[in-house]
Amino acid sequence: MEQTPKHNTKSMQNANQTSIYKLLVAGIVVSMLGVYLRFAFDSTTLSLVSWIVLFLGAFICCKAVFKILGS
């Protein structure tokens, strides 16, 4: 007898919350902005700011992924 997977568990419902995916999309957009700023202009200050924005976006994406995994 085959076991059917349970897709209605509490962890699956928590992992499929739209707020988590909105956070993931926001992190991707922030990361894309950081990459754009990194290659758009040639300035030491703007380069430093772009790296900070890029790592901030990566941190937001990692936070969303760990929320999904923690469900």
Provide the fold topology.
Layout lengths: L9 H6 L2 H23 L3 H26 L2
Helix pairs in contact: 2-3
Keywords: Membrane, Transmembrane, Transmembrane helix
Protein name: F0F1-type ATP synthase assembly protein I
- Structural class, from secondary structure content? mainly alpha
Work out the count of structural domains. Answer: 1
Mean pLDDT: 86
**Helix and strand string, N-terminal first?**
HHH
Q: Work out the strand percent.
A: under 5%
Helix content: over 70%
- Main β-sheet: number of strands, strand sense, barrel status? none
Let me know the number of strands.
Answer: 0
Rg estimate, integer Å? 18 Å
Runs with pLDDT <50, length 5+? Answer: none
Choose one word for the global shape: rod-shaped
Number of helices: 3
Cα-to-Cα separation, first versus last residue: 29 Å
Mind explaining what this structure looks like?
The protein has one domain. Helix 2 packs antiparallel against helix 3 (44-69). With 71 residues, it is mostly helical. The mean pLDDT is 86. The chain has helices at 10-15, 18-40, 44-69. It is rod-shaped and about 60 Å long. The chain contains three helices and no strands. The two termini are 29 Å apart.
Briefly summarize what is shown.
The protein is 77% helix and 0% strand. The chain has three helices and no strands.
Keywords:
single chain; 71 residues; mainly alpha; rod-shaped
